[in-house]
């Protein structure tokens, strides 16, 4: 029986000739990265546990979250990483370089068939070149830096066959927004998704990066695009040697396979709060915008800049609209300069910043405020992710067209006179307080339940990205859920010993460890969900934060405030208030071992 792309790559980087979904294996990592917001915690973990670097030549820092150096806490974290890098001989791609995942591809650190991990939750962008990439928390990265490998559960694979021809004007961003519209945020949760078909084979590297980048928003472990001849040649030039790319075997087994008619795809935008909540551009037209953003790891390549310049040439950004453009890497920035694209941007009235992640990472140009409406090429528009305003997601063409129109528009409907503004109301942030950690680690816990009946609670709802520079766990609890509507006062009301029970895909989104540690700071004993975001699940297990899944919770007859006991060894959940019980999924041997010793490190 053959293997899928991810199975072959993982087998090639382990001591197994064949791997199957569900197996937990140690995977050797070719390139191990930490970003500026997670890097300081990686260093802290290594020092506190007396660990060294297994191979400095395979280890890098990338400073892409705050390349302007505009935040004091980021500046401290970056310098902490610089000092450690000097001590250990580690390469730094500093604030002048650009987005780490793009640099890894362009500099030959990642190539077809290789493996890569980073504190970036979009490290699975490496699927664009047929490589394995994963975003992981700071404990995972510290362990990988120290040992060269990390445990990983082999995911099941899905195969999507694209049929038909793309309609005119439908871009790579529209492809992924159409996929999100079809599959939502959790249908593909935990899968490695392989893409096939004529519409896929002809995609450029930039297009592949756009699609692979948003696999995280679909809940996928990774979106794997088999490398074309052009991709292989690009990678061989970057790395300076011949490459043997990895492709799925003809008899590979897929847990899910589906044909998709791309001729039905349309230009789409994601409505604020959920990348998967997409509508056609026509449905969104005439929604007034205050600002627009073009960039991020999803749409910051030279192809994106050229398309933006095509729309903006000989046009002006609508009065009062702020258009912010951030190329993905310094090389793209320089190419824009050489091709006259920067001049087109500036003549149109856009603000152009140095290369980096920009608004997506909270630390650079691109943030919006309460009441502000933004259209963005980013990969996420979770509430609060790019600021406190509303964020729509779209392709560079739609975003640039909207910036000129003053409202959401496509390039075929840009008006001769842009829209005018109306007055807006603004909201005030709420105050929160911090609680202490209980520190108890029994295998059976009992406590009051917070029953949050929602799917897809993302990491920005749990622990907002404006707090990412916090490394002291004692400061984290006060910010728990302060961005989850209806639970902004959770930290005030929670007491040590509480249990959180929720639905699908809890912890979707970022790789931030704080979204786990904030519950530990409050003394929350356990989080139970139907499923967890892949990175969040790893972070919780590695931090010895008890999490457990269930298949169905209905029979528990659960109400908010009930007293529930959870048995980590057997998986049994008992509602002590009404005497009802259900069986959840007990801890795996790996999870129980890490939990009992107090954490991965």
Task: Flag low-confidence runs.
Answer: 426-439
- Tell me the β content: 15-25%
User: How much helical structure, as a percent, in the residues?
Assistant: 25-40%
The CATH class assignment of the largest domain is Alpha Beta
Largest sheet, in brief, is: 7 strands, mixed, barrel
Q: Judging from the principal axes of the Cα atoms, what is the shape?
A: globular
Q: In the CATH hierarchy, what is the superfamily of the largest domain?
A: Aconitase, domain 3
In terms of structural class, how would the helical and strand content be classed? alpha/beta
Mean pLDDT: 92
| Whole-number count of domains | 3
What is the CATH architecture assignment of the largest domain?
Answer: 2-Layer Sandwich
The CATH topology of the largest domain is given as Aconitase, domain 3
State the end-to-end distance.
37 Å
Cα-atom radius of gyration: 23 Å
Number of strands: 25
* Biggest sheet strand line-up: 19-20-21-22-25-24-23
Can you put this structure into words, describing what you see?
This protein is α/β, with parallel strands linked by helices and 601 residues long. It folds into three domains: 5-264, Aconitase, domain 3 (2-Layer Sandwich), CATH 3.30.499; 268-413, 2-Layer Sandwich (Aconitase, domain 3), CATH 3.30.499; 444-596, Aconitase, domain 4, CATH 3.20.19.10. Helices cover 28% and strands 18% of the residues. It contains 19 helices and 25 strands. Strands 19-20-21-22-25-24-23 form a seven-stranded mixed beta barrel. A five-stranded parallel sheet has the order 4-3-2-5-6, with helices on both faces. A five-stranded parallel sheet has the order 16-15-14-17-18, covered by helices on one side. Helix 6 (172-183) links the parallel strand 8 and strand 9 (192-196). Helix 6 (172-183) packs parallel to helix 8 (205-213), helix 11 packs across helix 13 (341-348) and helix 11 packs parallel to helix 14. Mean pLDDT is 92; it is low at 426-439.
């Amino acid at each position: 029986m053959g293997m899928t792309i991810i199975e072959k790559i993982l087998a090639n980087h382990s001591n197994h000739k064949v791997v199957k979904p569900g197996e937990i294996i140690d995977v050797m990592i070719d390139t191990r990265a930490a970003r500026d917001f997670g890097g300081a915690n990686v260093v802290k973990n290594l020092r506190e546990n007396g660990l060294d670097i297994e191979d400095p030549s395979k280890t890098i820092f990338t400073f892409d979250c705050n390349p302007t150096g505009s935040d004091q806490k980021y500046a401290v974290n970056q310098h902490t990483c610089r000092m450690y890098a000097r001590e250990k001989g580690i390469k730094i791609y500093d604030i002048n370089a650009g987005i780490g995942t793009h640099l890894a591809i362009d500099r030959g650190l990642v190539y077809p068939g290789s493996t890569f991990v980073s504190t970036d939750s979009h490290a699975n962008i490496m699927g664009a070149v047929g490589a394995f990439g994963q975003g992981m928390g700071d404990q995972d990265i510290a362990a990988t830096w120290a040992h060269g490998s990390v445990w990983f559960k082999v995911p099941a694979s899905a195969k999507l066959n694209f049929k038909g021809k793309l309609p005119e004007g439908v871009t790579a961003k529209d492809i992924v927004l159409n996929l999100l519209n079809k599959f939502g945020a959790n249908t593909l949760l935990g899968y490695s998704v392989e893409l096939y078909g004529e519409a896929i084979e002809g995609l450029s590297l930039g297009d592949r990066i756009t699609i692979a980048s948003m696999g995280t928003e679909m809940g996928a472990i990774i979106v794997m695009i088999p490398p074309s001849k052009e991709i292989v040649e690009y990678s061989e030039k970057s790395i300076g040697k011949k490459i043997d790319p990895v492709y799925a075997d003809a008899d590979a087994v897929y847990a899910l396979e589906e044909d998709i008619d791309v001729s039905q795809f349309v230009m789409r935008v994601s409505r604020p709060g959920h990348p998967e909540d997409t509508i056609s551009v026509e449905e969104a037209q005439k929604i007034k915008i205050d600002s627009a953003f073009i960039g991020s790891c999803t749409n910051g390549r030279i192809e994106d800049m050229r398309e933006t310049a095509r729309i903006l040439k000989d046009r002006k950004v609508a009065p009062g609209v702020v258009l912010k453009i951030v190329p993905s890497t310094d090389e793209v920035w320089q190419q824009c300069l050489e091709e006259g694209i920067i001049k087109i941007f500036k003549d149109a009235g856009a603000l152009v910043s140095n290369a980096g992640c920009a608004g997506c990472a909270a630390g650079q140009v691109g943030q919006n405020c309460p009441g502000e409406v933004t259209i963005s090429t980013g990969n996420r528009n979770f509430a609060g992710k790019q600021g406190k305003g509303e964020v729509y997601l779209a392709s560079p063409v739609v975003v640039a067209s909207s910036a000129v129109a003053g409202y959401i528009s496509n390039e075929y409907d840009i008006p001769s006179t842009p829209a005018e503004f109306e007055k807006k109301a603004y909201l005030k942030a709420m105050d929160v307080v911090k609680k202490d950690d209980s520190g108890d680690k029994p295998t059976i816990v009992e406590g009051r339940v917070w029953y949050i009946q929602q799917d897809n609670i993302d990491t920005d709802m749990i622990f907002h990205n404006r707090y990412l520079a916090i490394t002291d766990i004692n400061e984290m609890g006060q910010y728990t859920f302060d961005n989850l509507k209806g639970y902004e006062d959770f930290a005030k009301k929670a007491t040590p010993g509480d249990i959180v029970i929720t639905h699908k895909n809890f912890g979707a989104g970022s790789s931030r460890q704080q979204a786990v540690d904030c519950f530990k700071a409050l003394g929350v004993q356990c989080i139970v969900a139907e499923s967890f975001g892949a990175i969040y699940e790893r972070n919780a297990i590695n931090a010895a934060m008890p999490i457990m899944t269930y298949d169905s919770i209905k029979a528990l007859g659960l109400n908010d405030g009930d007293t529930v006991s959870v048995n980590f060894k057997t998986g049994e959940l008992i509602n002590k208030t009404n005497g009802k019980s259900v069986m959840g999924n007990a801890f795996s041997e790996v999870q129980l071992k890490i939990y009992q010793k107090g954490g991965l490190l």
